């Protein structure tokens, strides 16, 4: 189980870098929250929502695994 920690932490860091790069390639990165208004029609909005959900699940899984708490396996499966 502890062998999964470096891989999960690495995936979390890479996903954070990817989401940051995604936000910075926009014309006005500070207006990223405005992109969330049109989730039904905008692929950029969906990217932000699903990447954030992925990061939340993976980050919580990393924290649970680091502190040796149960419940990290379902989060890893979800992520």
Given as residue ranges, the uncertain stretches (5+ residues, pLDDT < 50) are none
Shape: elongated
Number of helices: 3
Tally of discrete structural domains: 1
Mean pLDDT: 84
Proportion of residues in extended strands: under 5%
**What percentage of residues falls in helices of 4 or more residues?**
55-70%
Order of helices and strands: HHH
Class from helix and strand fractions: mainly alpha
Subunit organisation of the chains:
single chain
Number of strands: 0
Distance between the termini: 16 Å
Largest sheet: none
- CA-atom Rg in angstroms: 15 Å
Topology:
Elements: H1 4-24, H2 43-66, H3 72-78
Helix pairs in contact: 1-2, 2-3
Please, could you describe this protein's structure?
The chain is an all-alpha fold and 79 residues long. It is built from three helices and no strands. The longest helix has 24 residues, at 43-66. The protein has one domain.
Q: What are the defining features of this structure?
A:
dimethyl sulfoxide reductase activity, membrane, transmembrane helix, Anaerobic dimethyl sulfoxide reductase chain C, DmsC, 0% strand, 79 residues, single chain, mainly alpha
Short account of what is shown:
The protein is mainly alpha-helical and 79 residues long. Helices cover 66% and strands 0% of the residues. The model has no long low-confidence stretch (mean pLDDT 84).
